[in-house]
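User: Fold this; tokens only.

Assistant: Input:
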Amino acid sequence: MASMMDRIKQFAQSPQGRRAAEQVRRAAADPKRRDQAQKLLDKLRGKRH
């Protein structure tokens, strides 16, 4: 049975994994999306603003 890391590596090298990675890169480059992600992370970490 493949370990979790092996399965992640296989996914990352697959066409579907490459598409997912590209979508994440595009979303991370968008300032609005980056702000949304930061707010979510702060909320999950329990930070208050």
